[in-house]
Specification:
Blueprint (H helix, E strand, L loop, with lengths): L12 H24 L16 E10 L4 E6 L5 E5 L7 H17 L7 E5 L5 E4 L6 E3 L5 H8 L12
Antiparallel strand pairs: 1-2, 1-4, 2-3, 4-5, 5-6
Helix pairs in contact: 2-3
């Protein structure tokens, strides 16, 4: 019976030396950065955690989805009604389509609220807290932002000194 031949695998010496130098250089740079403080000197942007305005909303489609009522999730009050497909609420409906489709796939009830938030600098998000999806309303343009801004509570009036 013949014994199987074992081939010797040879790695070029230059490749081994190059890999060793790369590891040594990486460790050296990490040590240098730690000792000089270079790893902490980058500017740190403050975290944006406080929304300017928020509201939990329930979107209820009526009459085969040509009409939609927007309600405040806490009070149940009607905030806005969109009637027909004549462009009334088109931006609001457009941003909701993907979120509603995902909810339907996952079997989530349509009456679960979404959270609309405006952030410092004018950024707006619509968050489905059930599925975890977030839509950047600004991505749909200024008309969409204005359509959603109308659904937020009115800002508190600033008192004059």
């Amino acid at each position: 019976m013949m014994e199987p031949e074992i081939e010797e695998i040879r790695v070029p010496r230059a490749a081994l030396i190059g890999a060793g130098l790369l590891v040594a250089a990486t460790i050296g740079l990490a040590i240098t950065a730690r000792m000089t403080g270079a790893d902490t000197s980058a500017p740190v942007l403050p975290a944006v955690t406080q929304a300017v305005a928020t509201r939990d909303l329930v979107f209820v489609a009526e009459n085969n989805s040509t009409e939609m009522v927007v309600r405040d999730a806490q009070s149940g009050a009607v905030i806005r009604e969109y009637r027909g497909m004549n462009g009334d609420g088109g931006f609001v409906r457009g941003a909701l389509r993907g979120l509603q489709h995902l909810r339907a796939q996952r079997g989530v009830a349509a009456d679960e609220p979404y959270r609309l938030a405006e952030w410092p600098g004018g950024r707006m998000t619509l968050q489905d807290r059930v599925t975890g999806m977030i839509v950047e309303v600004n991505a749909f343009g200024p008309s969409s932002v204005e359509g959603y801004r109308a659904l937020l509570p009115a800002p508190l009036a600033q008192e004059s000194p």
